[in-house]
Amino acid sequence: MTGRFTILGAGVMGLAVATELASRGHAVALVDPALGPGGHGCSWWAGGMLAPFCEFESAEEPVLRHGRAVIDWWESHTGGVTRNGTLVVALGRDRAELDRFARRTEGFEVLGADRIAGLEPDLGDRFDRALFFAAEAHLDPRAAMAALQSGLMARGIAVAAELPGDAGEVIDCRGLSARDILPDLRGVRGEMLVLRCPEVKLSRPVRLLHPRVPIYLVPRGDGVFMLGATMIESDRRGVVTARSVLELLSAAYALNPAFGEAEILELGADARPAFPDNLPRIGRADGRLYANGLYRHGYLLAPSVARQLADHIETGEKPEFWHETDDQR
Fold it and tell me: Is the pTM of this model over 0.85?
């Protein structure tokens, strides 16, 4: 039996929920007065790494388990997934960080200089040891969001500014804006740079470990890279700080000095929505369903949360990420 649903929020969570419900035959409306098509929010500034094994270094087990299953979802709905794995490296002085990362993760192969050079020639003479996570992938978040929007528009679903007259059941996917009904939601600030550096060729995300400022570089094609990202306990949005720019660029320069001549195309900052345990939640609050709290795992976990929510709607069973409020217990 199908139903009618209005989803609040057109970020990656809202788009994933709308796509999942629409693909199951439900009537869907999507509302986001702040964003609209092509708008910029937290999802716009993501790295787009589908890296469950690497994220397991500091995340709970559900992130690994659910994250491994989403790559095919993104491929089927966007067709824009690159399955080249992830390379993790560290400078000689930070070799202990690479050992620590290896102890806390799985699904990798230890590479020497020759294998590194075979995968990424521009890094082969700079690192003699790396971890390669072959099963991981990445996508361009902006292209992925556009693909989901296009798929919804093909079904007659566009992002509206106001609730429709017949809203049906409301599903809240507003991210940090939902703190008006989810008081334990907090912001985790992330700052990112988009660089153009044609002198560097990378075919997969590269993570450079550092005890204080670990970074990632995600290739976007044509010599463009997303460089990120800070993790600051703050809900402050807006421009990137000078300190963060200096730290991120210094780390990129350490990875490859050619980044010293890179063009800075964009600077971006936003606050990721997170609950105290840094895991997503599905539940009811203020008379509506909600899905929120993706933390730094937006593209990695949104499809799984969307599927759990859709299953709950259709079967009534409580999903793994279900969270009951005090008055429901």
Answer: yes
